[in-house]
Amino acid sequence: MSEISTKPYLIRAIHQWCSDQGLTPYISVVVDHRTLVPRQFVQDGQIVLNVSADATQSLVIGNEMIAFQARFGGVAQNISLPVDNVSAIYARENGHGMAFEVGAGSSGDDELEASPELEASPELEPGLSDDPLSGAAEEPSPPKGGGRSHLKLVK
């Protein structure tokens, strides 16, 4: 039996932590042919999505896929994306979260890597929609702490 990657468990844990702290969980996703998102909100091959309970409906963070419904420009959309394509999950308000190596697969050999803090980049936090209730809703605030995020890379 092959082992399941730690990545979906870490995503679920950071999502729960954000929710428990009253923070807004955002995920950054690399878009490819397996990613079902509104393409007009994709920038530089990535999309940042608000995955809070207020912005999503029927959110399921599975071991292979993340699926939910969200509004984009007032129109409800079904969203589906591979867990392998998630490059980060973090709190919008303070940038605390975790970054992942994209395409690491589900070999089960994911390990946490102690790494220096990563610089926040525009690719992780673009404003995606003018609809404040959408899944890609609000324009994110820059992380506190001198513009540095608190993401840790996971391979």
Q: Your description of this structure?
A:
With 155 residues, this protein is mostly beta strands. It has one domain (7-106, 114-154): SH3 type barrels (Roll), CATH 2.30.30. Helix content is 10%, strand content 31%. It has one helix at residues 7-21; strands spanning 25-30, 46-50, 57-61, 65-72, 75-82, 86-91, 96-100, 150-154. The strands form 2 sheets. Strands 2-1-6-7-8 form a 5-stranded mixed β-sheet, covered by helices on one side. Strands 3-4-5 form a 3-stranded antiparallel β-sheet. Strand 3 and strand 4 (65-72) form a beta hairpin. The longest helix is centred in the N-terminal third of the chain and has 15 residues, at 7-21. The two termini are 21 Å apart. The model is unreliable at 104-149 (pLDDT under 50).
Summarize the structure.
This protein has 155 residues and is mostly beta strands. The protein has one helix at residues 7-21; strands spanning 25-30, 46-50, 57-61, 65-72, 75-82, 86-91, 96-100, 150-154.
Main features:
5-stranded mixed beta sheet, globular, 1 helix, mainly beta, 31% strand, 3-stranded antiparallel beta sheet, 155 residues, SH3 type barrels, 8 strands
CATH topology: SH3 type barrels
Q: In order across it, which strands form the biggest sheet?
A: 2-1-6-7-8
Strand content: 25-35%
Q: What is the end-to-end distance?
A: 21 Å
Query: Quick one: how many beta strands?
Result: 8
SSE string, helices as H and strands as E:
HEEEEEEEE
Q: Compute the gyration radius: what is it?
A: 14 Å
Provide the CATH superfamily.
SspB-like
How many strands, what sense, and barrel or not for the largest sheet?
5 strands, mixed
Shape type: globular
CATH architecture verdict: Roll
Structural class: mainly beta
| CATH domain class name | Mainly Beta
Average pLDDT score: 77
Total domain count: 1
- Low-confidence residue ranges: 104-149
